[in-house]
Request: fold
Amino acid sequence: MNILDIIANKRDAKELSKEEIEYFVKGYTEDKIKDYQAAALIMAIYINGMNDREITDLTLAMAHSGDVLDLSRFGTDVVDKHSTGGVGDKVSIILLPTIASMGVPVAKMSGRGLGFTGGTADKMESIPGYRTNAEIEQFISNVEKVGISMITQTMNLAPADKKIYALRDTISCVENIPLIASSIMSKKIASGANKIVLDVTVGKGAFMKTREDAQKLAEQMVRIGNLAGKEVRCVLTPMDQPLGYAVGNSLEVIEAINFLKGDMPKDLKEVVLELGANMLQLAGKGNNIEENKLKMLENIENGAAYNKFKEMVQNQGGDISYLEDTTKFEKSKYISAVVAEKTGKVKEINAEEIGKLACYLGAGRVNKEDTIESNVGIILNKKVGDEVVENDFLAYVCANDEIKLKEAERRILEIYKIY
Ligand code: URA
Reply:
């Protein structure tokens, strides 16, 4: 078997055998297959697709390309969560400490930014000192000690996905059901939880632009999960405009901290509560979804969720004085307000465009090895449905480069559709 034949088969829209898929995954993980060959195969998969059997084989090969975690010491009710990606999506940073404060053990490995969407690991790293890297033993001992740990994918958890994920980001091969389903489910299978809640985002700022596609992706992931003996629940959530107000790494962390202190933007609150209530139900902490939401709100309002977040940050080396006083987060060099040129109602703020703009400002990566700027991004001041009067502030641009600042100001005016 050789990689050229495998690439040619998929290029010609043929079905790949289990052996061919395993050969590729193993060879790429071990650096025997080059980036350019993997890129060619991934592009061929993107264009010509994969059937259910191929997707399952790809998922399992990636899941078993490294360690498979055993979380059984925490009982059978450990619930994992994953999102298919969004713009302004700081849900995990809020939701996970909240449910951890209710006695559900949380062992969460998060991704980095992908395409125009942000990644929780990048966001958490904007808290000075916070370590997102941990070996598996450390990760487990964090959960034993404080009930929650949020890290990035360890080197040896689904390493094949880690490489393919980073590669896809730089070859425009992100928005694809077989690739997304196998990427997410390989990590979820490897990370050990038996119960998984998946946030399947749908809309202009999601990889799935239509409900039908989101439904297809959801069904695909449930099928793979069931085959691997996991209980998987998908919640479809809207992602047309950015979630909440902040887009950009430290900007989103600040919004998440404020949320945990009780300042909850409506759209963000709905998503956090819906996903959390489902996680609590799967964890055996309450069958009634509406009651679960109220319990979560109680733990946010009485400070338990925020205190759990603080405990986790401190346990992973983060400077909690930044949580107590968010004005300590380093500001970008330039912060400018974009003002409305006319009076009317905000009809649309395309989340993908905002996500791309945040990446352009430095919040995301263009090349695999790029470092990100944690303090740049966009803070919306008006959201869809808001009335605006000429000269009202629509949004703030946070930038470290003057040319990018000017370009972003210009683009914001185009992105806000006001009628
Ligand atoms: N999240 C993932 O982990 N993988 C994808 O492919 C998309 C979103």
The longest strand covers residues 195-202.
